[in-house]
Specification:
The chain is an alpha+beta fold. It has two domains: 142 residues, PAS domain (Beta-Lactamase, 2-Layer Sandwich); 86 residues, Reverse transcriptase/Diguanylate cyclase domain (Alpha-Beta Plaits), CATH 3.30.70.270. The protein is 49% helix and 24% strand. It has eight helices and eight strands; from the N terminus they run αββαααβββααβααββ. A five-stranded antiparallel beta sheet has the order 2-1-5-4-3, sandwiched between helices. The protein has a three-stranded antiparallel beta sheet with strand order 6-8-7, sandwiched between helices. Helix 7 crosses helix 8. The radius of gyration is 32 Å and the shape is elongated. The protein starts with a helix and ends with a strand.
Length: 247
């Protein structure tokens, strides 16, 4: 009986040691896989503690901000990486939200050389033993996207030929001026003009020359009117002029 108990205890100890080794091997493998994914990710990744100190970062993160890994590790994101105007916003969002759940927002960051650039930041807490110990931040440079958005906005809001406001944007600005005037109880000053005999210019000299005339008209108006005055091409050779009243 004693022999059997001793044998059972030895078998149990052997099984426990074997299980412990398997768990350690599994954990080690998981850590290796995570580290490999972290290092090789095409996105800029950083491991931050609760105070925003960078505990680790991958190569793409270093390239994005222009720092070496040695310069990055231990640096707080407040230290030269956040645009001064966004420091309070950044700190509040990271300290309050990033360690409670998934966080995603767009802001401005600063590179080592001082260059400011728009970035999309996603952060998710890193939970260890049921407690948030830090956060993994994903940083995506959205400069090209912002440039495209601005280009599309310009195409939608401005006349491609003359550079004046488009009809739709002009009507939107007019609506804003009317509402503003109603609140202030002031008049709305407008003018509507066209180019005399514009059809004759097109018919006689061609549309290319007509386009030059329209560009010249807008250039003349801009040189004559105030900087705050609004020129809208309503179609063809017709223009709406809006003269905001300065209180």
């Amino acid at each position: 009986m004693t022999v059997n108990l001793k044998k059972s205890r030895e078998e149990l100890e052997d099984y426990s040691k074997s299980l412990e080794k398997k768990v350690e091997a599994t954990l080690y493998k998981s850590q290796q896989e995570f580290d490999s994914l972290f290092r090789s990710s095409p996105e800029a990744l950083a491991y931050l503690d609760k105070k925003g100190t960078i505990l680790d970062a991958n190569l793409r993160f270093c390239e994005l901000f222009g720092y070496s890994l040695a310069e990055i590790n231990g640096r707080n994101t407040d230290d030269g990486m956040i645009h001064p105007l966004n420091k309070i916003e950044e700190g509040n969002k990271l300290s309050i939200n990033a360690f409670k759940g998934y966080l995603n927002y767009e802001t401005i960051r600063k590179k080592k050389d001082g260059t400011l650039f728009p970035v999309s930041i996603s952060a998710t807490p890193l939970i260890i033993d049921g407690q948030p110990k830090g956060a993994i931040g994903i940083y995506i440079d959205i400069t090209e996207r912002k440039q495209l958005e601005e280009k599309l906005k310009k195409l939608a809001n401005f006349d491609s030929l003359t550079g004046s406001c488009s009809r739709r944007y002009g009507l939107d600005l007019l609506d804003r001026q009317i509402k503003l005037a109603q609140r202030r109880k002031t008049p709305v000053l407008l003018a509507y003009t066209d180019v005399d005999n514009f059809k004759g210019i097109n018919d006689t000299f061609g549309h290319n020359e007509g386009d030059k005339v329209l560009k010249g008209v807008v250039k003349l108006l801009k040189s004559t009117l105030r900087e705050i005055d609004i020129i809208c091409r309503m179609g063809g050779d017709e223009f709406l002029l809006i003269f905001p009243i300065v209180p």
